[in-house]
């Protein structure tokens, strides 16, 4: 009887510790480790192609698709106009996100990082040497540019494959692209950018918003393959609640019919400041 009572008390104490730990980890976002000061420049180049200039002068390009992108300004169809690039991040394997990965890497010798399976197949296809890649997966964090910049891979709801067409036979071959994802990019000054890649609306966005607390979201609004403006507005207002938002992944092809105006209308009264910029334009943060 006494032994059973002791076991019950120990179990009760253990359960209390677990409950307290759960409450502690759920009360706020992941802590930021930052150096004071510095500006962040974010340039949108059409579809979801984004160039980030960090406070320390590092250049990160996400989902490079410029030479074949009808919305990319002519100036940037020459990849050399991007200047130096330190890191290329890829959210998934579709051609409108990987179209210029191989060429941009060859030009700049930048590291390439993304979902483990996707990167492995890029290496197998000869796009990037294995030594110039970083493979990681959901909730994994990497620091390929040094300790001041942390990149965390987060969930997205979307498909992913790499389709390669033989130039001689015109026959396409489809390769596995792993799981589609988004990236939380935390920079030297603590500023957090959530590049959502391609995604639909899903409840996990609430956890991403609460835990990572992004300052800026790059959010798809085109519809059909991704969220439409109404779904994107719901995610912004109810799940992510960022200070700033830049809508993207719209207008490139007819089915991506959502517009920034529809997104802003669906947002209504909100604390999020929206920048409906055009491809090629830049915004500097903090404002």
Tell me about this structure.
With 287 residues, the chain is α/β, with parallel strands linked by helices. It has a single domain, classed as Metallo-beta-lactamase, Chain A (4-Layer Sandwich), CATH 3.60.15.10. It is 26% helix and 24% strand. The strands form 3 sheets. The chain has a 7-stranded mixed β-sheet with strand order 6-5-4-3-2-1-16, covered by helices on one side. A 7-stranded mixed β-sheet has the order 7-8-11-12-13-14-15. Strand 11 and strand 12 form a beta hairpin. Helix 5 crosses helix 6 and helix 6 crosses helix 7. The chain is globular. It starts with a helix and ends with a strand. The relative contact order is 0.14.
List strands and helices in order, with pairings.
Layout: H1 2-26, E1 40-44, E2 50-53, E3 59-62, E4 87-90, H2 95-98, H3 101-108, E5 111-115, H4 116-124, E6 133-136, E7 141-142, E8 150-155, E9 161-165, E10 172-176, E11 181-186, E12 192-195, H5 204-212, E13 216-220, H6 229-240, E14 244-248, H7 260-267, E15 273-274, E16 282-285
Parallel strand pairs: 3-4, 4-5, 5-6, 12-13, 13-14, 14-15
Antiparallel strand pairs: 1-2, 1-16, 2-3, 7-8, 8-11, 9-10, 11-12
């Amino acid at each position: 009887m006494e032994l059973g009572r002791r076991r019950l008390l120990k179990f009760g104490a253990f359960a209390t510790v677990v409950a307290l730990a759960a409450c502690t980890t759920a009360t706020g976002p992941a802590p930021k480790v930052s150096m004071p000061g510095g500006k962040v420049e974010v340039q949108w180049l059409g579809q979801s192609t984004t160039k980030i200039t960090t406070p320390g002068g590092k250049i990160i390009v996400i989902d490079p698709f410029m030479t074949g992108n009808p919305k990319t300004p002519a100036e940037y169809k020459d990849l050399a106009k991007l200047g130096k690039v330190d890191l290329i991040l890829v959210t998934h394997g579709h051609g409108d996100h990987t179209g210029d990965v191989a060429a941009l890497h060859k030009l700049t010798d930048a590291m390439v990082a993304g979902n483990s399976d996707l990167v492995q197949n890029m290496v197998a296809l000869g796009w990037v040497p294995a030594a110039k890649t970083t493979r990681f997966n959901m909730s994994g964090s990497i620091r390929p540019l040094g300790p001041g910049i942390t990149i965390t891979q987060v969930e997205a709801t979307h498909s992913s494959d790499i389709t390669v067409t033989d130039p001689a036979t015109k026959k396409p071959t489809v390769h596995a692209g792993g799981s589609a994802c988004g990236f939380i990019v935390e920079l030297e000054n603590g500023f957090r950018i959530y590049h959502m890649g391609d995604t639909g609306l899903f409840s996990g966005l609430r956890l991403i918003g609460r835990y990572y607390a992004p300052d800026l979201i790059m959010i798809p609004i085109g519809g059909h393959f991704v969220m439409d403006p109404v779904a994107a507005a719901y995610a912004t207002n109810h799940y992510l609640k960022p200070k700033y938002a830049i809508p993207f992944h719209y207008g490139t092809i007819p089915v991506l019919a959502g517009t920034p105006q529809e997104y802003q209308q669906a947002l209504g009264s909100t604390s999020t400041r929206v920048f409906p910029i055009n491809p090629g334009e830049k915004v500097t943060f903090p404002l």
